[in-house]
Design a protein that fits this description.
This protein has 124 residues and is α/β, with parallel strands linked by helices. The chain is built from six helices and five strands. The mean pLDDT is 96.
């Protein structure tokens, strides 16, 4: 796993104080039950192309603030964000909350923990 710098960890920890986080098991349960929410992969496009959670759309951390209103105009839409390990998704969730999105969750552990549990993934 990447060794993160202190200042990066500081802003991630700050973001995590204000966003709701759920486990990968909780997200898997929500998917299995057919709950209605938008699953957003905030990783880089190359990471998304390699593999992603079934049903996920790609809105990378670099563009999500710019593009979210066009893709998801309703700020009450339930959103679950994930990345590699839960850091970028927490930062993105924090930004979306500041933009008025009221139902944003970050998946703690990210796709790395999802892969480790051998939950289903999609490619392409």
């Amino acid at each position: 796993m990447a060794k993160h710098t202190p200042r990066f960890l500081q802003i991630v920890n700050d973001a995590k104080k204000s966003v709701k986080e759920v486990t990968i098991d909780a997200v898997k349960g929500m998917l299995d039950k057919g709950e209605k929410f938008l699953l957003i992969d905030v990783r880089e496009e190359s990471e998304f192309a390699k593999d992603h959670l079934p049903g996920a759309i790609h809105l990378g951390k670099g563009v999500i603030e710019r593009d979210i209103e066009l893709r998801v105009p309703d700020t009450a839409t339930p959103l679950v964000l994930y990345c590699g390990g839960g850091f970028r998704s927490a930062l993105a969730a924090d930004a979306l909350q500041k933009m008025g999105y009221t139902n944003v969750i970050s998946m703690d552990g990210g796709i790395r923990d999802w892969r480790a549990k051998q939950y289903p993934l999609t490619t392409g």
